[in-house]
Design goal:
Structural class: alpha+beta
CATH topology of one domain: YefM-like fold
Order of helices and strands: EHHEEH
CATH architecture of one domain: 3-Layer(aba) Sandwich
Distance between the termini: 68 Å
Largest sheet: 3 strands, mixed
CATH class of one domain: Alpha Beta
Radius of gyration: 26 Å
Length: 82
């Protein structure tokens, strides 16, 4: 397995466009500062999975008094009673 390319931060700033093109074509690399690796740059290969809002719609019922459930017990615990 070939070793990963390490680029110092100054070189990365100077040649950013070229490095991004290389990463987009599948060649990942590491940006280092003073010889210490900081970040790995790789291509984004898969789109982000969208958040599934409402995936339990129709499967869960919320009681009408949901916001008041346990209010007495909570008040008692924090205030010594209501």
């Amino acid at each position: 397995m070939p070793s990963e390319v390490v680029v110092n931060i100054h070189e990365a700033k100077t040649h950013l466009s070229r490095l991004v093109d290389r990463a987009a074509s599948g060649e990942s690399f590491v940006i280092a500062k003073a010889g210490k690796p900081l970040v790995r740059v790789t291509a984004i290969t898969a789109p982000q999975v969208p958040q599934r809002l409402g995936f339990l719609a129709g499967q869960v019922q919320v009681p009408d008094d949901f916001n008041e459930m346990g209010a007495d017990a909570i008040a008692s615990a924090f205030e010594g009673g209501r």
